[in-house]
Amino acid sequence: MAAFGSVFMPKMALATFENNQWSEASIVAADSIQLHPGAHVLHYSSTCFEGLKAFRHEDGSVHVFRMDQNVKRLAQSSRLLSLPELDEAAVSKMILDVVAEYAEDVPTPPGSMYIRPTHIGTEAAIGKAAAPTATSMLYVLLSPVGDYFTGGAKALRLLLEETGMRCAPHMGMVKSGANYASALGPIFQAQESVQADQILFCPNGDVQETGAANFLLIDGNEIITKGLDTCFLHGVTRSSILTLAKDLGMTISERDITVDELLERAAKPEVEAVLSGTAAVLTSVGTFIHNGKDYTVGNGEPGPIAQKLRQALNDIQWGKAEDKNNWLTKVV
Ligand SMILES: *Cc1c(COP(=O)(O)O)cnc(C)c1O
């Protein structure tokens, strides 16, 4: 099985922004774009992206999950990066059109079609270090993916990092390439020095998120996760899981949580900790590493509540449970 996200459909949807307006979108060969080496994105990182999925149901129909949320977030990222303003309806149509083009290729569950809308600054202008790009390109790339957990789910080791940050605080809500590059150095170092899988960034003891996923603590009937502020990425999976957990009668506490409280709660045998994101839905955390010491979370294994919540979300995505919140958009 190819690595997640390494296989692409041969065509994508494309629109360009020039002379202050968006072109009509078209479906083009995915490897057909040209970029000037002086393009704004290549020097000043004027780039943002989204990750969402289309699912195949048992009757053969194909549905995109919470597209409105991802399109809204892409428009927000574009705005915060001073990229040209998006037309959300046009972006939604590009997504639906390209998924429709490849409806036959959408894998059956637990696989799906991963959708990667991307917006980049294309103006050839290396003098614009402190000015926005005048032109841009928006494309929607597709990548069929299998089960994220082939080989079984294993609980992760997370380094609690209290000094470094994932990205500059005003960039937290932007799903932008540079944020990932900025987190890579610390993550590699944590992998080498303490065999951590990921870093949970907790500047000054404030538990935020990892390099590419949100963090939730499950303590019995309560889920505790940081309330929405501008320092971290507001995950669609996070919001969906909180909605489903509330429906299941759980208490949702969206508030700040400190490293001290996290370690204290992690010592309880029934506690679970999870990372949330579109690719894997929920991934369990088995160990926190803090100041050179390992702290087992609950019993150190993937827990039953994470499993139940992941199943509840998958059941809606896969058409096995009622879509009460209208999260699915039917493509074909
Ligand atoms: C994409 C992302 C998430 C998860 O968002 P989802 O919408 O749930 O996929 C969380 N944190 C960061 C930094 C991300 O890039």
Structure notes:
With 332 residues, this protein is an alpha+beta fold. It folds into two domains: 11-145, D-amino Acid Aminotransferase, Chain A, domain 1; 156-317, D-amino Acid Aminotransferase, Chain A, domain 2. It contains seven helices and 17 strands. Strands 1, 2, 3, 4, 5, 6, 7, 8 and 17 form a nine-stranded antiparallel sheet that branches. α5 (236-247) packs across α7 (304-317). The two termini are 27 Å apart. The mean pLDDT is 96. The protein binds pyridoxal-5'-phosphate. The site of pyridoxal-5'-phosphate (PLP) has 14 residues, from α5 and β14. Pyridoxal-5'-phosphate binds at residues 51, 175, 209, 212-214, 233, 235-238, 276-278. It holds the Pfam family Aminotran_4. The modification N6-(pyridoxal phosphate)lysine is found at residue 175. It is an enzyme of class 2 (transferase). It comes from Marinomonas posidonica (strain CECT 7376 / NCIMB 14433 / IVIA-Po-181).
